[in-house]
Design brief:
234 residues; Arc Repressor Mutant, subunit A; four-stranded mixed beta sheet; 7 helices; 68% helix
Length: 234
């Protein structure tokens, strides 16, 4: 028992470390990409510096048209600097948004992988039922610590399966229908018993519990995945 707990704890720690390293890798990659991108962008004041250089090198331009041209160049440099600054802000916001999406996708992916792994383990090992108590008078069933209120028909179906399990027997759909309805087995349809099983599973409300509790073994029939000494019918 301690070994299984230690194994589960160690698995949880490895999963947490994987999540942390994955998040760090995503953040680091995007940070590197952002740094390279910002370094590749031209300086916002580069155009203004070039215009200023033109002013300095061409101080002999004194005609009104020439001065107007230089003013237009200066205004264009200012506009270019403002646009480039806004582009930097937009790129930064997009990178932050991309980081958040990738981190969320990583966490969701790891959560789905862990959930699928647990579901596979449950399906392989089955549900561990320590006690199954059927209360006919109250139309209820207590499965471990979970209580389910069922219809009288569902209780009868579960009781028939419980009695068969205590006798190590499998029941076909026709046999279930015959035992509940009192008709001869030859006059009962296999689909009628299968319908009762489906209604039992639906009445329990928990698809995972009901699917694993009531099993259908190929060529044998239906049975309960419960130890005989764990079943009580009141």
């Amino acid at each position: 028992m301690r070994d299984s707990i230690s194994s589960a704890t160690e698995g949880l720690r490895r999963g947490n470390r994987a999540v942390h390293w994955g998040i760090a890798a995503i953040a680091g990659t995007l940070a590197l990409a952002a740094a390279l991108l910002f370094l590749a962008l031209p300086d916002a004041n580069a155009f203004n510096a070039r215009v200023e250089r033109i002013f300095v090198e061409n101080d002999a331009l004194t005609q009104p048209g020439e001065i107007r041209l230089l003013e237009v160049l200066a205004q264009s440099g200012t506009a270019f600097a403002e646009v480039l600054s806004s582009y930097r802000i937009i790129i930064f916001i997009l990178l932050v948004f991309a980081t958040a999406l990738m981190v969320a996708a990583l966490v969701l992916l790891l959560t789905l992988v862990d959930l699928n792994r647990r579901m596979s383990e449950i399906r392989r090992s089955g549900i561990e039922v320590q006690g199954l108590r059927i209360l006919r008078g109250e139309n209820a069933v207590v499965l471990n610590d979970m209580a389910f209120s069922l219809t009288p028909a569902a209780i009868e179906t579960l009781a028939v399966l419980a009695e068969a399990r205590m006798d190590d027997e499998f029941l076909t759909g026709a046999q279930i229908e015959a035992m509940i309805s009192g008709k001869p087995e030859a006059d009962c349809d296999e689909a009628a018993g299968a319908t009762r099983i489906k209604r039992l599973r639906d009445a329990m409300g928990n698809a995972l519990v009901s699917e694993l509790l009531v099993r259908n073994v190929s060529r044998k029939g239906y049975t309960l995945a419960v130890a005989k000494d764990a079943i009580r019918v009141d």
